[in-house]
Amino acid sequence: MDAHGNNGVIATGNAQVRNVAVASGSNARIDLRVTERKAPDDGARAATPQEISELLARFIEDLRASDHPDREDLAEFAQDAREELAAPEPRTGKLRRVARALAEAVPGFAALSSLAVTIEEAVRGL
């Protein structure tokens, strides 16, 4: 940060600013959803496989509604993770790799990225 500090975001013209995201240009739009993250070691219970499966279902729905170029492949990958979660003994190593890959695949898509991070953190708690 420079000596003048951070004055935030200033947008003019065809720009839209919401929370921490900026879209600029004609037909600019922002789709931003923020999910609350649990503080580490705050004594909160870990997410259940069913809860993680529901997060993945929401991720798949949001992904298919997005314009991500790999949305169908990623949706299939996420569905594989849901099936793994339904197994009698889910392979947590595989689920961690899937969660990390999903988070790395959507950094330019704010809503998907936020949800992917939430999923990744929930899977770590398994």
Which keywords apply here?
126 residues; mainly alpha; elongated; single chain; 5% strand
The first-to-last residue Cα distance is 38 Å
Helix percent reads 40-55%
Main beta sheet: strand number and arrangement? 2 strands, antiparallel
Unreliable spans = 1-10, 35-39
Beta-strand percentage range: under 5%
Instruction: List the strand order in the largest sheet.
Output: 1-2
N-to-C series of helices and strands: EEHHHH
Task: Give the strand tally.
Answer: 2
Radius of gyration: 17 Å
Label the overall shape: elongated
Chain-averaged pLDDT? 78
Helix- and strand-based class? mainly alpha
Our count of helices gives 4
Description:
The chain is mainly α and 126 residues long. Helices cover 48% and strands 5% of the residues. It contains four helices and two strands. The protein has helices at residues 49-65, 71-85, 92-105, 110-124, and strands spanning 16-18, 21-23. The chain has a two-stranded antiparallel sheet. A hairpin with a 2-residue loop joins strand 1 (16-18) and strand 2 (21-23). It is elongated and about 50 Å long.
